[in-house]
Design a protein that fits this description.
It contains 8 helices and 10 strands. It has 295 residues and is an alpha+beta fold. The chain folds into 3 domains: 7-119, Orthogonal Bundle (Butyryl-Coa Dehydrogenase, subunit A, domain 1), CATH 1.10.540.10; 124-228, Butyryl-CoA Dehydrogenase, subunit A, domain 2 (Beta Barrel), CATH 2.40.110.10; 247-294. The longest helix has 36 residues, at 228-263.
């Protein structure tokens, strides 16, 4: 395993970090949490897309491309930097949908969805989990049935990130008992989005109800009844990015804690000068480095 970054990746990482520091400091994050319905600025998200946040898992034929030739390794760098700064934005769901459509979407699906995602103008999210929130193909209960040349979708999905602001949903359901995924316009009649409570102040989650939602046969992503493997791949993708975000967050928290130990004095000495605390910081640094390496 090679844990060293290439020169291009180092530049990409530094560019992302500088952009987040200047455009989205913690004061801005708090302001967006209170004033922006989405928890972030859509214009800011478009600027992030220009840096490549939404195109790394999209093929070059569809307008994407990676820095190193391995898009997920590059995207992990973005996730780590966003985790360090508790940055908002639907990084995970948008890239999950982009990857699914780029991998298995029809030419028409790729033409209609991917250019907007790559440009940061289209928000997409994944409707997989169902209350109480199990993320797997085996746990799917939502069933779709045929109607004419299309399908009817009924059921409830949740939690779904960024559902209230998404332009399209990638919906996982069962057809004749077999997992199938559909690309559904969020404005299709019969869809109701209900905001849900969450701990992250800038990540918005919702419950999405599908009540007799009619979708055409062209909405199927991949093969009918053959989505189990793809769903497993997308869950792995989401978990990798979530781990990278959390690794970045704990790395930042250790830095803040060590900085505090140098600023705080006890008996005329910085807390960081005490040997017992140095040992604890060294142990914590080992765990953080292991988290980053694993992610």
């Amino acid at each position: 395993m090679d844990l060293q970054l290439s020169d291009d990746q180092v530049l990409f990482d530094e560019t992302t970090a500088r952009f987040l520091e200047t455009s989205c400091p913690i004061s801005t994050v708090r302001e967006w949490a209170e004033k922006e319905s989405a928890g972030f600025s859509l214009e800011w998200w478009r600027r992030g897309a220009e840096l490549g946040w939404t195109s790394l898992l999209v093929s070059e034929e569809d307008g994407g491309g990676s820095v190193s030739g391995h898009g997920l390794l590059d995207l992990v760098l973005v996730a780590e930097e966003m985790g360090r700064r508790v940055s908002p934005g639907p990084l995970i769901p948008v890239n999950v949908v982009a990857s699914a459509v780029s991998e298995l979407g029809t030419p028409e699906q790729r033409r209609s969805v991917l250019p907007g995602i790559v440009a940061g103008e289209t928000l997409a999210t994944w409707c997989l989990a169902e209350p109480p929130g199990t993320w797997s193909a085996e746990a799917l209960r939502m069933e779709v049935r045929t109607k004419g040349q299309g399908f009817v979708v009924d059921g409830v999905k949740g939690p779904v990130e960024a559902a209230a602001d998404a332009d399209c949903f990638l919906v996982a359901a069962r057809f004749d008992g077999a997992p199938t995924q559909f690309l559904v316009d969020s404005h299709t009649p019969g869809i109701m989005v209900t905001p849900a409570e969450g701990l992250d102040l800038v990540r918005r989650f919702s419950t999405v109800t599908f009540d007799g939602v009619v979708v055409p046969a062209s909405a199927v992503v991949g093969e009918i009844g053959d989505a189990a493997g793809e769903i497993e791949r997308l869950v792995d993708l989401a978990v990798v990015l979530q781990c990278a975000e959390m690794a970045g967050a704990v790395d930042q928290m250790l830095d803040v804690t060590i900085g505090y130990a140098f600023d705080r004095f006890s008996f005329g000495r910085p807390l960081a000068s005490y040997q017992a605390l140095k040992h604890r910081f060294a142990d914590l640094k080992l765990w953080v480095e292991a988290c980053l390496a694993t992610a």
